[in-house]
Write a structure and sequence with these properties.
This protein is mainly α. The chain has helices at about 1-25, 35-50, 55-80, 85-100, 105-125, 130-150, 155-165, 170-195, 200-210, 220-240, 250-270, 285-295, 300-320. The radius of gyration is 20 Å and the shape is globular. The two termini are about 35 Å apart.
């Protein structure tokens, strides 16, 4: 346990230095990454209303990134292990660095944080009976994320598929879910009406459709690592599938949820507008759960150490782009 804690304290400063170097190396205008009406309002409050500096976004992004890693670590720990284990925390941060978090923009960091909360709530719904609060929360968060980053609408089918396969619902439960879903829209429309703000929604739609014409970019330097990552992910899925029937019900529900999230994350890689090294960030959530489960249960510790080393080197290369 002490070795795990020491590894965490050694890793975080190295990760922070790497993130700072990545921010200095970033040439993307992060204010124009996402086309979202609520995000435009947030940026206006930050930079026009409060006169914040540009670097504040990077600080907020890093804080959200650490918070996401803590959430993912706690979800995994409560699902599979009864003691504190920081490897999931480290794997999540490294995968995020591979997916170019410094150039992603605040909107996607907020939306990914919301997506992790949604995963956490969906797990509670699968294990609970009176889930009125959870249904409201998950639909409210899904609606809020769409207003932050409209591309997040790709994950709406994921939420409803997981909800509907878990259990049957009463009419009043559907009504509560619908109310939660539309509240962010009501808030934003009220803001437009009260402050007489003119919003050109066609501009957002036009920008989104225009960006869809570009294909995801993966350089030659990335291909080898992604091939290794795909191999590890597929072998992890195969091992999970082999022992699936012997797993506890809550673990089966957990992995089914992760497989659906993985499917929609891959789909999102091709459909969201932020394609160049940033559109795959959502993949880090299911991949962290699936790969960490394999690494913790693997008998050959050397294989896990080699993978973590390769993941660390890949995160350095992806952020600093020295190849």
């Amino acid at each position: 346990r002490n070795n795990r804690l020491i590894a965490l304290f050694v890793f975080i400063p190295i990760h922070l230095i790497l993130y700072i170097l990545a921010c200095l190396n970033n040439k993307t205008d992060i204010l124009n990454i996402s086309f979202g009406p609520l995000l435009d309002l947030l940026y206006w409050i930050m930079f026009e209303g409060l006169s914040m500096e540009y670097w504040v976004i990077y600080v907020l992004q890093y804080g959200l990134l650490l918070y996401q890693a803590v959430l993912v670590n706690n979800i995994f720990k409560s699902q599979f292990i009864n003691q504190q284990h920081w490897m999931i925390f480290i794997v999540y941060l490294l995968l995020n660095m591979v997916f170019q978090t410094s150039s992603l923009g605040l909107g996607w960091h907020l939306s990914i944080t919301i997506l992790i909360y949604i995963v956490q709530i969906l797990i509670k719904i699968s294990q609970g009976k009176n889930v009125y609060k959870e249904l409201f929360d998950v639909c409210f968060l899904a609606g809020l994320a769409i207003f932050l980053v409209p591309s997040f609408i790709i994950f709406s089918p994921f939420v409803w598929i997981v909800l509907l396969r878990q259990r049957s619902y009463k009419i009043n439960e559907f009504a509560i879910a619908f109310i939660g879903l539309i509240i962010p829209s009501v808030w934003y429309l009220s803001y437009i009406y009260v402050f007489d703000v003119s919003i050109n929604m066609y501009a957002y739609i036009e920008n989104y459709i225009g960006e869809l014409s570009s294909l995801p970019f993966i350089g030659y330097d990335d291909f080898v690592f992604f091939a290794i990552l795909v191999y590890i992910a597929l072998s992890s899925i195969f091992n999970i599938q082999t022992n699936f029937s012997r797993s506890a019900v809550k673990n089966r529900n957990f992995f089914i949820l992760q497989f659906w999230l993985l499917l929609f994350s891959v789909l999102g890689f091709f459909l969201i507008t932020e394609k160049d090294k940033v559109g795959v960030m959502a993949l880090s959530i299911p991949l962290t759960f699936i790969i960490s489960f394999q690494l913790i249960n693997i008998k050959r510790v050397l294989v896990a150490d080699v993978f973590l080393t390769l993941l660390f080197l890949a995160s350095i290369e992806r952020q600093l782009n020295f190849l």
